[in-house]
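Researcher: Here's a chain I'd like modeled. Treat it as a single chain, no partners, no ligands.
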Amino acid sequence: MDGLNASRNGDLREPVVQQSPAGYAKRGSREFPRETGIGVLGEMPWGTHICMFYETKKDLLDTAVAYFRAGLESNEFCLWAVAEPIPTEEAASALRAAVSDFDARLAAGQIELIRGADWYLKNDRINAKRVTHGWSRKLQAALAMGYEGMRVSGDTFWIQSEKHWKDFCAYEMTLDRALTGQKMIVLCTYPLCASQAVDVLDVGRAHGVSIARRNNDWEFLETAELRPAKLEMAKLHGALDILSSPFPGHDMLTPRERVALAQIVRGASSKEAGRTLGISPRTMEFHRRNIMKKFDAKNTVDLVRKVLK
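Model: Modeled as a single isolated chain. Structure tokens:
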């Protein structure tokens, strides 16, 4: 297989190792919501299946690098199945520029970079069961080595035929079901230049969260089948300007606080915001108090007024 650290036999035994490999542990508990590294999403729970459509090569590279940097820093095993326009060497160079000890992590086996077509295709066919079992073996091996879970991203630029597309959509549906209860987060990336409207609908059905990045601007996407989720996503979409554009006091907040502020501005309760962001209501309330203190706001109405003035 053409890739960096591309192959390793999966260990199917129950994980018993408690010491984190190479001393890279950043969080003690395996129950934390995971930091995605994707600003509009913030923290997400294990089992999250994300779809991202991208406009430019830079949109893809910037997102994937931030996503994997967050995974490496959170003691997760990471695997990036790349495709044109980003070969494995360029993906490695981008990660090396963003993660100071990338080469040490690569040598330790914490991250693998492989060609997507090599992983998904066998005899020019995509077998959903074979691929999902492959992810399961990788996950079990990662847990046995002491990692907290596994973070994956696969790009679809290599798909060239209608047959491959249909097979891959079937695989995505299978994967979405298989992720339930698993310590995995998966980011599937699709080039907008090769996607039609029907493709967007097909892909949306198979993912819990669908987003698009177009020349660095973010959008939330959805399908008619995802109508219940649309209500939550629409609320988030209305607050995205809080995350992407400077506002009075913007520099006082941490990235996580800006995500929480977006929920406050849209009128979400601590329970609603916590459910959307994958954190507890108590944690959301903690962020709310910190934000109000930083803005010297008397109440939520006063806070919103100061932010939006």
